[in-house]
UniProtKB/TrEMBL annotation:
It comes from Flavobacterium pectinovorum. The keyword rRNA-binding does not apply. Residues 93-210 form the Phosphatidic acid phosphatase type 2/haloperoxidase domain. Keywords: Membrane, Transmembrane, Transmembrane helix. The keyword Membrane applies. This is Phosphatase PAP2 family protein. Gene3D superfamilies: Phosphatidic acid phosphatase type 2/haloperoxidase. InterPro entries: PAP2/HPO, PAP2/HPO_sf. The lineage of its organism: Bacteria, Pseudomonadati, Bacteroidota, Flavobacteriia, Flavobacteriales. It comes from the Bacteria. Pfam families: PAP2.
């Protein structure tokens, strides 16, 4: 399996950056044409779409709130923790990609400083699920960047060979990603363009991470069993963190993440002990 992933990554071309860059430029030109490059107008042109999405998705608060947790790297990565043992190349790309996403997310949020919906609209007019977020860091959506960073790495890692299968696989990943990221609008945390822009940046982060891991072997030690105690310690810490979240919020997604991580912890301990 690891060999398949390596071969898939080796076939990726820089031309894959053209589409996301085009989409980002298209968004900027759209905002410019609407005179919405300022914060107030940016929010105003999305007001109707935000209320429409928020009012409809907000009708399923439990589902939306559980799904939106996948934008948390700890939760989403827990489901793929077992791949450290069987497909370490994916984790090499994931680590590089997530570092890139962090380097992009924090500065962009500070530069744009767009206030969250809860800081702009009356609480009685929008649906807020979970903790109300009132900061000025709405654009881009960090959860959306994380989701599409991870999904992009998986998209190309497991890309089928046949064209029809490639199209179906790509559509499946994109659809799943959009369903997850638009929960950020459903729970009242972001505007639509926040999550769309975040998704595109996440895709770029994922691609950059793949290229970095392909050229530089900075994470090659992941495949070395003598370093497994590092992951065992990290998994234990993450399990404790998930237990704390279960105690405080008791979301079903946390239980699934915990079980996935616990299974991975058991497996990696077993492999390390038998080395």
């Amino acid at each position: 399996m690891n060999t398949i992933v390596i071969n898939n990554y080796s076939r990726i071309k820089p031309s894959l950056f053209f589409l996301p860059l085009f989409l980002l430029i298209a968004i900027v030109l759209f905002l410019y044409s609407k005179g919405a490059l300022c914060t107030d107008k940016y929010i105003q042109i999305q007001k109707s779409s935000f209320f429409f999405i928020n009012s409809h998705l907000g009708q399923y608060p439990n589902l939306e709130y559980n799904l939106t947790q996948l934008g948390d790297a700890l939760i989403f990565l827990s489901f793929f923790s077992i791949l450290i043992l069987y497909v370490p190349k994916i984790w090499e790309a994931l680590l590089s990609s997530l570092l890139v996403s962090i380097l992009l997310t924090c500065p962009l949020k500070s530069v744009f400083a767009v206030p969250r919906p809860d800081a702009v609209f009356n609480n009685d007019t929008i649906i807020i699920v979970g903790k109300a977020l009132c900061g000025h860091n709405s654009l881009p959506s960090g959860h959306s960047i994380t989701v599409f960073t991870i999904l992009t790495v998986l998209l190309f890692a497991l890309m089928p060979k046949e064209l029809k299968s490639k199209i179906l696989w790509t559509l499946l990943i994109i659809t799943a990603g959009l369903i997850i990221v638009f929960t950020r609008v459903g729970i009242g945390a972001h505007y639509p363009l926040d999550v769309i822009t975040g998704s595109i940046i996440g895709y770029i982060s994922g691609l950059l991470g793949i290229f970095i891991s392909r050229k530089y072997k900075i994470w090659a030690w992941i495949n070395n069993k003598k370093y497994y105690p590092i992951f065992i310690l990290l998994f234990v810490i993450c399990c404790i963190s998930l237990i704390c979240r279960i105690i405080h919020e008791n979301l079903i997604i946390f239980y699934f993440a915990f079980v996935s991580l616990a299974v991975s912890l058991y497996k990696i301990i077993t492999v390390y002990v038998k080395k």
